[in-house]
Amino acid sequence: MKSTGIVRKVDELGRVVIPIELRRTLGIAEKDALEIYVDDERIILQKYKPSMTCQVTGEISDHNLSLADGKLVLSPEGAKELVKEINQSLEDK
């Protein structure tokens, strides 16, 4: 685990501000959902991604394809974009 050297206090309502530098680096925008995990005495925050979110388009649907033992989720549109990009890469070589 990498230390950032950033320290924040918990306010009276239990809130902690995540610095903008970290939010930008991790791609966390205003109103994004964060998933909270606990590992022994550590609290882990992770940007929430529903399980059937297309990794190319971001579309959430039960009709998305789950490939490579669940490691890759694609919407039909995302799959088309990916195939097009792969074909383009192969043609360039």
From TrEMBL:
Q: Does the keyword Repressor apply?
A: yes
Top-level taxonomic group:
Bacteria
Q: Which InterPro entries match?
A: AbrB_C (IPR040678), B_subtilis_Trans_State_Reg (IPR052731), SpoVT-AbrB_dom (IPR007159), SpoVT-AbrB_sf (IPR037914)
PROSITE patterns in alphabetical order: SPOVT_ABRB (PS51740)
- Keyword hit for Transcription: yes
Assigned keywords, A-Z: Activator, DNA-binding, Repressor, Sporulation, Transcription, Transcription regulation
Q: Write down the SMART domains for this protein, in alphabetical order.
A: SpoVT_AbrB
Q: Which residues form the SpoVT-AbrB domain?
A: 5-50
What protein name is recorded for this chain?
Answer: Transcriptional regulator, AbrB family
Q: List the top taxonomic levels of the source.
A: Bacteria, Bacillati, Bacillota, Bacilli, Bacillales
